[in-house]
Amino acid sequence: MSKGISTQDTILRQALDLSSEIGLEGLTIGSLAKRVGMSKSGLYAHFDSKEELQRQVLDSAAERLTRFLVKQAFSKPRGLPRVQALFDFWLDWVDGEFSGGCPFISAAFEFDDRDGPVRENVVSHFQDVLGSIAKAARISVEEGHFRDDLDVDQFAFDFWSIQLAYHQYARLMKRDDARQRANRAFDDIIKRAQKV
Questions:
Q1: 121 part of a folded domain
Q2: Phi then psi for 146, rounded to 5 degrees?
């Protein structure tokens, strides 16, 4: 790995942590320069604009999410074990990967009513996550773990609803029972999805 790529990876990791705490809109070249101990002009060598920084932060988060969540979960046996792994790994991602929680969830609230390339980037990454959940559910149907008439897109919606509630219970409200409630809600959607 070249020094330039290594430096940019380090900067993006710090930018991810900072944006998870203060949001993508709060992330500026100045605030990031202070965090990483570089000059603003040094950072402009890596990012042409604030928007470009925001987009690269999201892309870096997606790459880390793929390594952390999807690859680990999709290494599990096909079907229900894989769906369970996706759920567990996602809770772990919210709990510990970044100091301020999931950068996608934070960005979704910031950019949900805005147009532009950053919002499009957020939407694209969310669609990838939901697609992975639906794919795992579809494989569970093929493996006979879920019923044949399961609406996999509805399953992905329900799965994601639990993740959003978990993020708020655990991070915003600091509820000790957040994981227990998330697991109970997940057990309910699994029961509804399984063959009778």
A1: yes
A2: -115, 155
Q: What are phi and psi of 194, to 5 degrees?
A: -75, 160
Pairwise CA distance, residues 120 & 51, whole Å: 12
* pLDDT tens column, 9-24: 889 989 988 888 888 8
Which ranges constitute the DSSP H helices of 112-177?
117-142, 152-167
Determine which of 13-17, 58-62, 96-100 has the lowest per-residue pLDDT on average: 96-100
> In the structure encoding, which two tokens stand for residue 72, read together?
């680990």
What distance in Å separates the CA atoms of residue 130 and residue 115, rounded to the nearest whole number? 21
Whether residue 40 lies inside any domain: the answer is: no
Q: Would you say residue 30 lies in a domain?
A: no
Q: Report which of residues 3 and 73 the model is more confident about.
A: 73
What pTM does this model have? 0.86
CATH number at residue 132: 1.10.357.10
12 domain-assigned: no
Number of structural domains the chain divides into: 1
